[in-house]
Amino acid sequence: MIRATALVRRADLASGEIVDRIVLDHGDRHRRRMAMRGVGGLAFLLDLAEPAVLDDGDALRLEDGRLVWVEAAPERLLEIRAPSAHALKRLIWHIGNRHVPAEIGEDALWIAHDHVLAAMVEGLGGSATPVERPFRPEAGAYAGGHAHPADHAHGDGPAHGHHHGHHHGHPHG
User: Fold this and answer.
1) Cβ–Cβ contacts within 10 Å for residue 71, how many?
2) Which has the higher per-residue pLDDT, 115 or 156?
3) pTM, whole model, 2 decimals?
């Protein structure tokens, strides 16, 4: 079985033949070694030297130099908002106090869908709206490696055009 031995970050992806894509949820984007199958059917072994977070828009380099595109799968989340910046900070503190993975944006917070936390947020004056979108939680202070802030900016480089929230035009079959 062919191996994927290198992770190429989106910012470093200048060229290469993209031969397939993998669509992974948040939990499956934290890997080192795992058998995988692309959407187009390409079977390969992810075999990185150390665990890594595979971010939306990154690619895995196969031993023969070809690339497999990484796409973040939409997940069922809660989008949490508050009437003021201070109120949002309070909600972030309460959610963080429960050690729940969270993606923090400029004026919203996203967590995995949880009816108990939704009720808590609403009880504290915020809103918790169910949404479906890729989940990119904070890596954590002790996670090391690659952090990927929620309000990151991606420049569209020469490799491909890319915008969050829609399908990529990469190979399917």
Assistant:
1) 20
2) 115
3) 0.69
